[in-house]
Every structure is written in structure tokens, then in C-alpha cells.
Amino acid sequence: LQKIDFSHPIFHTVHDINGLDRTKSSGQATLEGLEIDGKIVLIFSSDGLNDSSKAGGNCCCCGGNEIRNARQINVNLLAYTLTH
Q1: Which of 19, 27, 47, 64 is least crowded, fewest Cβ atoms below 10 Å from its Cβ?
Q2: Residue 36 buriedness (CB in 10 A; 0-12 / 13-18 / 19+)
Q3: pLDDT, tens digit, for every residue of 36-79?
Q4: Which candidate, 45, 43, 44, 63, places its Cα nearest to that of 53?
Q5: So where are the chain's domains?
Q6: Sheet containing 32-36: which strands, arranged edge to edge?
């Protein structure tokens, strides 16, 4: 997996994303990707791409470090996947 730079179209397809802020710790999160034949086929973030802030009291995974703008990133990922 290779770190995906913020200049990549994934970060600018629908929403213009210039950083990935974490909910619990300082510093920027990163996205990593696997590229095959010039196309990104897998995206990974050790901070997760979920948004559990509205999950309710029965969430098994809530309370950890998350990316604050995960919803916007997921929209960009879907749009990028459908158009590239």
C-alpha cells in the first residue's frame, strides 16, 4: 500500500478535501491505496472511514479514533470509482 497524496483526484472529485482530521488524537490521518495497472483498486485507513457519531448506544466500534470528514471522503471515493 502507498500513501495517497492530497493532490490525487480522490480528494477533489465532489468535495475538496485537503486534510483528514482525527477525532481523538492530533495530527493528520492518511489514506493508503493499492494500485494495479494505474488504477487504485483498494483504499485503506488505519483510522477507519466510518462515521459512528450518530450510531446510538449499541455501537460495537464507537469511541475510537475516527476521521472527522469520513462522510465526504466516502462520497468522493464512490464518485471516483464510478467515473474512473
Answers
A1: 27
A2: exposed
A3: 998 899 999 888 787 666 666 666 666 666 788 888 999 999 99
A4: 63
A5: 2-50+61-83
A6: 2-3, 32-36, 39-44
